[in-house]
């Protein structure tokens, strides 16, 4: 489904002059022309004459509503999910409503085209998209996905036609019609995504989708851009879906020898059959490919906080909140996690479930304070059963590249290194957080800004937890910076919370004018 000026493929088959909705008023919008058609809905151009604003108005097809009682609920779920995601690269929702038996959703009208159209244009010209441009566009999509994942939203239908490119070539993610909220919802209906871009676990069962399912689809798009083909094709949707589940993807270099070997490794990692073997976030995938191409990573723009976070109650410190309190969400059956990225990226989680979902930017990032002193800033760790927060209480920015939390033997999979934090730094007054999906307490009140949030969907081994795989316990974990142990902190078990304070080594801070 698209919201843009140019008609979509297939839209021309609809004769606008015969469409009974042309000229109708739905909510604030009078429908003036048809933009695109799809299996479940049509997209119209609509005009709000009071505000003199145009919109793309998505209207559910009546025949689909009659055959699928869950469709209206899914449509409402899409509207609510997207309306809560205020992000520069996620489509803006203006209005949702039901009128005379018609369900409609008014969105920002994006003047431009979608990525599928652009790829077809390049293919007709015998060209491939410039790598720098492709990674810039997909990097914007990745930031949108990570933001959605941090709010508990999985898209489940990432494909080129759902990525709009406006007149300035900015990417905007749209069509959340298959959205799944990881906190409470299950799949409605039988639709499970687009076969050529669907992740194996989602092809098996739509409600098995995890954030890394969207990472897989983004990897398919990148594969397609770099090679000119999607990894799996067939004569029927079922044949393609079975290939996604069972067959290894053709090595990208077999289709385009110009792809560096390091890039091929990252693409195949993104296309791993198991979610935990993929990159921990969409941004991690794009950053890994940029690094493999020896391209600098562009500075990330500031993003609005997810509505769930922005609307959170004023936070108590973790020491004042029981992880088993009545307002904590009930523990769900765990879902697969995502594994950390290779190389310099850290190892988090156990061998059985080493899964990390999205690293999401939620606040204003990388704010280096002028005149800050680099001398040993105080650091506080607050942590409970399912949440961990690191707070920089000093005036200097912490360089986290040499930080490591070690529980048990150094190098085990439950270790954690600071490079996982967005930007690999922690500005003064900021916090970096890690939490299990089912724990959604607001951050400590001391946190003036959130540098990053990393969400785990199931993690029996976390460095601040006492339990071990063999049924034993460990009393503490260690904090190492630049190869030196600087603190030892107590671990916690279910229902407990704790706090650990220590000075940060002066050699691991960033000068304000650096």
What does this protein look like?
With 514 residues, the chain is of the alpha+beta class. Helices cover 21% and strands 23% of the residues. The chain is built from 11 helices and 24 strands. It has a 6-stranded antiparallel sheet with strand order 1-2-3-4-6-5. It has a 6-stranded mixed sheet with strand order 12-20-19-14-13-23. The radius of gyration is 24 Å and the shape is globular. Residues 1-16, 182-191 and 301-375 have low confidence and may be disordered.
Largest sheet report: 6 strands, antiparallel
Number of domains: 3
Detail the poorly predicted runs: 1-16, 182-191, 301-375
Residue share in helices?
10-25%
Shape: globular
* Structural class based on helices, strands and sheet pairing: alpha+beta
Annotation field: number of helices: 11
User: What is the β-strand count?
Assistant: 24
Beginning-to-end CA distance, first to last residue: 46 Å
Strand percentage lies at 15-25%
Rounded to the nearest angstrom, the radius of gyration is 24 Å
Q: Report the mean per-residue pLDDT as an integer.
A: 77
> Strand order of the main beta sheet, please?
1-2-3-4-6-5
From the structure provided, what is the oligomeric state, counting identical versus distinct chains?
Answer: single chain
């Amino acid at each position: 489904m698209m919201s843009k000026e140019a008609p979509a493929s297939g839209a021309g088959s609809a004769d606008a002059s015969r469409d009974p909705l042309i000229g109708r008023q739905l909510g604030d919008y009078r429908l003036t022309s048809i933009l695109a058609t799809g299996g479940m809905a049509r997209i119209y151009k609509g005009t709000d004459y009071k505000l003199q604003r145009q919109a793309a108005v998505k209207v559910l097809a009546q025949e689909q509503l009659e055959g699928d009682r869950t469709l209206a609920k899914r449509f409402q779920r899409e509207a609510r999910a997207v309306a809560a995601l205020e992000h520069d690269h996620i489509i803006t929702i203006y209005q949702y409503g039901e009128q005379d038996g018609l369900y409609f959703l008014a969105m920002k009208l994006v003047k431009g085209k979608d990525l599928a159209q652009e790829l077809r244009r390049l293919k007709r010209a015998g060209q491939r998209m410039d790598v720098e441009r492709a990674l810039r566009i997909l990097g914007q999509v990745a930031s949108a996905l990570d933001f959605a994942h941090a709010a508990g939203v999985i898209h489940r239908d990432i494909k080129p036609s759902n990525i709009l490119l406006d007149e300035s070539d900015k990417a905007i993610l749209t069509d959340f019609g298959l959205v799944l909220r990881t906190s409470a919802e299950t799949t409605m209906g039988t639709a499970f995504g687009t076969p050529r871009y669907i992740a194996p676990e989602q092809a098996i069962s739509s409600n098995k989708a995890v954030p890394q399912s969207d990472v897989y689809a983004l990897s398919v798009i990148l594969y397609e851009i770099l090679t000119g083909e999607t990894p799996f094709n067939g004569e029927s949707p079922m044949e393609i879906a079975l290939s996604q589940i069972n067959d290894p993807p053709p090595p990208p270099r077999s289709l385009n020898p110009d792809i560096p070997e390091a890039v091929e490794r990252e693409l195949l990692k993104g296309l791993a059959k198991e979610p935990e073997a993929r990159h921990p976030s969409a941004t991690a995938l794009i950053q890994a490919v940029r690094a493999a191409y020896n391209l600098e990573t562009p500075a990330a723009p500031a993003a609005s906080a997810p509505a769930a976070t922005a609307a959170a109650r004023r936070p108590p410190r973790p020491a004042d909140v029981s992880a088993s309190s009545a307002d904590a969400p009930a523990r769900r059956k765990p879902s697969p996690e995502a594994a950390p990225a290779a190389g310099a990226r850290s190892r988090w989680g156990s061998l059985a479930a080493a899964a990390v979902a999205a690293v999401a930017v939620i606040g204003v990032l990388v704010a280096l304070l002028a005149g800050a002193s680099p001398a040993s800033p105080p650091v506080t760790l607050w942590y409970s059963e399912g949440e961990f927060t690191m707070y920089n209480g000093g005036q200097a920015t912490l360089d986290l590249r040499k930080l490591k939390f070690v529980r048990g033997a150094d190098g085990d999979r439950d270790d954690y290194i600071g490079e996982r934090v967005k930007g690999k730094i922690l500005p003064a007054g900021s916090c970096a957080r890690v939490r299990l999906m089912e724990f959604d307490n607001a951050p400590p009140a001391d946190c003036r800004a959130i540098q990053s949030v990393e969400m785990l969907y199931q993690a029996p081994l976390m460095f601040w937890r006492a339990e071990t795989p063999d049924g034993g316990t460990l009393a503490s974990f260690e904090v190492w910076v630049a190869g030196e142990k600087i603190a030892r902190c107590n671990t916690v078990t279910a229902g407990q919370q704790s706090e650990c304070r220590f000075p940060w080594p002066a050699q691991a801070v960033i000068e304000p004018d650096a």
